[in-house]
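I have been asked to look over a protein record a colleague put together. Thanks in advance; the entry in question is below.
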Amino acid sequence: MSLPVQKNDRITVSIEDLTHDGAVVAKIDGYPLFIVGALPGETAEVPS
């Protein structure tokens, strides 16, 4: 089983949802990524 991202990759994601503590959720091949400092509906380039 391989993961959709590797350590130190920079990926562009679409922000999908907001958690109760203010982190946002993006998904890569079904895997959730929790991101701080974005809003649902935005696109962001983030390190993995």
About this structure: Residues 10-47 form a domain with the OB fold (Dihydrolipoamide Acetyltransferase, E2P) fold (CATH 2.40.50.140). The radius of gyration is 10 Å. The mean pLDDT is 85.
